[in-house]
Amino acid sequence: MANERKTFRRREPKEFEDVVVSINRVSKTVKGGRRMRFAALVVVGDKKGRVGFGMGKAAEVPDAIKKATEAATKSVFRVNLVDDNRTVPHSAVGTHGASQVFLAPAAPGTGVIAGGAVRSILELAGVSDVLSKVIGSRTSVNVVYATLDALKGMRTVDDIAKLRDKKVAEIR
Q: Mean pLDDT throughout 26-30?
């Protein structure tokens, strides 16, 4: 009895941090009445330039969050950042539905000037200084899609130089 050791499963550190952006109660009208379910929107990121999002639906909230997290880890992509992964390279507008998200680079020490879904995406991507504005609809799902659209459109000086078959020194 004294020599018996309990074995504990060690938790390996998670690759991504996750944030639940929204949880909605959705219903389907069937013959017997309304069937209630929950839809979760989750954003994941490693704070080093990789971010993704996913949606999940289930009868219970924890199951919906779990499904959304799994979907988010499958949709991770790399964001182009500049100044030691501090800010975005240039201004950009992302659009989805009636939502538009404007992102602009900011000076060191500015912080993340964003609200709601945009803030969670930018912080999980590792951006520390950025300005943003949501124009139009503020529906969280559309805002997330629009923010990711703006981030996917970011190009660095090196990317443009490769596209033009030029050296970086020629552009600057």
A: 94
Query: What phi and psi values does residue 20 have, to the nearest 5 degrees?
Result: -85, 115
Of the candidates 40, 27, 35, 36, the residue with the CA atom closest to the CA atom of residue 66 = 40
pLDDT tens for each residue of 55-67: 999 999 999 999 9
Distances (CA, A) of 80 to 77, 96, 120, 127: 10, 20, 17, 10
For the CA atoms of 16, 41, 119, 53, the dihedral, rounded to the nearest 10 degrees, stands at 50
Exposure string of 111-144, with b = 16+ CB inside 10 Å and e = fewer, is: ebebeebbbbbbbbbbbbbbbbebeeeebbbbbb
- Band the pLDDT of 39: cuts 50, 70, 90: very high
Class of domain 80-160: alpha beta
Give the domain ranges of the chain. 17-77, 80-160
Tokens 């219970």 belong to 60
pTM given for the model: 0.86
The residue whose two tokens read 């970011």 is 154
